[in-house]
Amino acid sequence: MIGTLSSAPWAFDSHPLGWLALALVGVLYGLAIYGARRAGAVGASPTNRQRWFLTAALLTLAIALTWPVADLAAHSSLSALVVQRLLLTLAVAPLLLLATPAPVLSWLTRPPILDDALEFLTKPVVAVITFTAIVVGTLLTPAVAAQSSSAAVRAATDALLIFAGFVLWGPVLRHIPGASRTVAIGTAAYLFVQSVVPGFPALVFIFSKHPIYPAFAGSHSAIGLSPLNDQQLAGILAKLATIPVLWTVAWVVLTRAHKAEHGGTDDSPLTWADVERRLQRAERQEKRAMRSRFRPVNRSHPLRPLAGSSPTAPEATSPTSNPRPGPDDAPNRNKENEGQHRDEPPPPDESSHQAPM
Predict the structure, then answer these.
(1) Which of 117, 177, 193, 296 has its CA 20 to 30 A from that of 309?
(2) How far is CA 259 from the centre of its chain?
(3) How far is CA 167 from each of CA 59, 118, 138, 244, 248, rounded to the nearest angstrom?
(4) Model-level pTM?
């Protein structure tokens, strides 16, 4: 989908931008591993199995972004576009997640803004809404027309679909530290919903009586099918790929949970990366609570008098109406006391009133 398109649908194109995007993914993966190691993350080196996952992800990405799938998906066949989208969301995204060690994922998502986004987007309801919005939104007629006419829009759409794949598989994969997790039956229900709700366009493709996308009007010369038949085939491919993949994963999740229950083990044990992430979140919440508790009061504006109070009431208690005596006022206070003592009569002599013996 990325690259210069030839005039003939099946003419070979080297797709240099597609291979550049492929190399960029490999470089970013290597930088993530290197950065996690420099940060002291234990277990940041990928295992042999994770290297195989990375190889499979890169090969699948090469199929999706180069000849002939990218050429046909650009403006020749809706079926090819659907195949490309399925490769990006159902294969490339989960393979990249599986290829990345858990300590590296923990290091990548450690910044608070990314951690909050991870916790929010991996909630099953949020994941269904987000994935559906991206999948359906990029299949709207204006969006498909823009993809067909602009290489930049195609590149942005490809990146957005890979991100949608991360959102789809985030609640399912258990090695992502900090991701919101549910029990096995909840994960199976989530996958069932994801196989039904975002697949609504597939039903539209199958039962529509006329072609929807003018961009694929030349499908007959490309794959030998009319635009309407190509559209119906695209809907069938979407259903045949999405439902078996997601339902198979749901069955695997339930089977593992059943075996773990009978074996007395935990199918998703708590790792140190999860514990560390929870401690970090608790510390951030405590700091936010402390900042909100000791937030300084804005004293730039004077206090307004209460309703019904006299506007002159503050004068009675104002500093100027009742000044506090200072050291210079001591002589005045002594004079006043002397005057008071002068005017007062002397106390009576108690000895003069004593009765004679």
Answers:
(1) 296
(2) 33
(3) 21, 9, 16, 19, 18
(4) 0.78
